[in-house]
User: Which sequence fits this backbone?
């Protein structure tokens, strides 16, 4: 078991990548503290993991809110006694369109959910890692942060910030044995993809297959691809890996 006795927080664990990471980490021996804004889906994932024999707790928490993030860290410590990894996965996007027409509230939400969450995770989890003598953060960025495409500039910018923050914090906290890495997935088969495609009326299995065909390895990213990469970064196999932006993109280079 690659995460035996490790305690991991996963945000946005009720859906997509977050649910896949939580389930995979549990199989590998981790005890989990999960959060999501969507209480029903988060509890469903948590209950499945408990039913499988692993340890998990769930909190309905908003990652943009400092006290909520603190409550999540406190819950992990209270329930499982320590904290090894925080996966900042919860994310938000809006439908692609002219960037000057994106409403202010969408801009604010993109940066609050995708970027400010990393600030709160640092404020509340770093002191725990410092006291413990180490820990790790895994931030879910995107290929959008490395090779931006038109009509989704504010999302691209938020993910570019995630990559830059990952590298900045990795250098700063390496002396504390705190590793900070991020994953950059390509377009993925999750509910968020509906927004990237322009809404439910444009989303279909055929449209997703066409999008996947434009990836060199011939398919969309699956949640399990992200879970496998995150598992490596969370494990001791990655003890010398920090400041990395690992592309999970099937070879997409444009
Ligand atoms: N789907 C893609 O194509 C894709 C590609 C690259 C990167 N990403 C990134 O991966 C991450 C996960 O995306 P996904 O595709 O699994 O999305 P998803 O929509 O399936 O899941 C996101 C989860 O985050 C939760 N969430 C949203 N705002 C929150 C908040 N403020 N507090 C707590 N929970 C909140 C949602 O309720 C949802 O359960 C995001 O950061 C996203 O930007 C997605």
Assistant:
């Amino acid at each position: 078991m690659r995460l035996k006795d490790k305690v991991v927080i996963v945000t946005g664990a009720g859906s997509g990548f977050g649910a896949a990471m939580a389930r995979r980490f549990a199989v590998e021996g981790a005890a989990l503290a999960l959060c999501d804004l969507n209480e029903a889906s988060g509890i469903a994932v948590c209950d499945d993991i408990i039913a499988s024999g692993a340890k998990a707790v769930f909190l309905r928490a908003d990652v943009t809110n400092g006290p909520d993030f603190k409550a999540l860290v406190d819950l992990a410590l209270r329930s499982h006694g320590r904290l090894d990894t925080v996966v900042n996965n919860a994310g938000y996007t809006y439908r692609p369109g002219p960037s000057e027409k994106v409403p202010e509230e969408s801009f604010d939400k993109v940066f609050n959910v995708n970027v400010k969450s990393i600030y709160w995770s640092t404020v509340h989890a770093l002191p725990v890692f410092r006291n413990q003598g180490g820990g790790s953060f895994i931030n879910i960025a995107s290929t959008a942060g490395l090779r931006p495409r038109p009509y989704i500039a504010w999302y691209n910018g938020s993910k570019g910030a995630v990559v830059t923050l990952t590298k900045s914090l990795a250098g700063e906290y390496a002396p504390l044995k705190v590793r900070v890495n991020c994953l950059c997935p390509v377009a993925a088969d999750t509910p968020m993809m509906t927004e990237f495609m322009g809404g439910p009326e444009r989303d279909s299995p055929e449209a997703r297959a066409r999008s996947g065909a434009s990836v060199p390895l011939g398919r969309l990213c699956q949640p399990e691809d992200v879970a496998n990469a995150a598992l490596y970064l969370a494990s001791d196999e990655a003890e010398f890996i920090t400041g990395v932006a690992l592309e999970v993109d099937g070879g997409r280079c444009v």
In short: DSSP finds eight helices and seven strands in the chain. Residues 137 and 214 are 31 Å apart (CA to CA). The pocket of nicotinamide-adenine-dinucleotide is lined by residues 11-12, 14-18, 35-38, 41, 62-64, 89-93, 113, 140, 142, 185, 187-188, 190-193, 196 (CB under 6 Å). The helical segments are 16-27, 39-51, 66-80, 104-132, 153-173, 193-196, 205-213, 223-234.
